[in-house]
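I had to read the description of the data format several times before I understood it. The format is easy to grasp once an entry is in front of the reader. For illustration, here is how one protein appears when written out as sequence plus structure tokens:
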Amino acid sequence: MNAIEAMKTRRSVRKFKPVEVPEHIIDTIIDAGLYAASGRNKQSTLIINVVDKDIQKMIREENRKIGGWEEGFDPFYGAPNMLIVLTDKTHPTAVYDGSLVMGNLMLAAHELGIGSCWIHRAKEEFDSAFGKKLLAALQIDGEWEGVGHCALGYAEEVPPAPKREPNRVFTA
């Protein structure tokens, strides 16, 4: 599959098989994220590979609370693997850079046969005492903003591509 084909066929997966993605595949996905373009090549992003199931559980629960869902709902849709993208708050293109990392992670996952979904509310998580405590526990210093969580796993179901909306391109 070429890059354009990957862009056209990747979909957000919201139903995952309960099977861990092998570490070497996760490492390849992370590596692709590290090669995302960044403003002035500052590379102002971090990726946290959350492998500890207890930490994953805490993040899922915090995200659920922020989202306002009922107890028991999993905002990560059962994805067995979780990456978090953070960006340096002091860098002017930080959120854009983090968004490019997220895009690279999801496209790389798709290329490797892994489903993905961008899970929001990372900003709120890492602006809170919960997120600051997590960063401190990981010995991550500085001012970091959460850009997104990348839920990863083998897709149980991949939705079809929606029709592209018309009148979105103009020539000047």
Q: What stands out?
A: The longest helix spans residues 94-111. The helical segments are 3-9, 23-34, 53-67, 94-111, 122-127, 129-137.
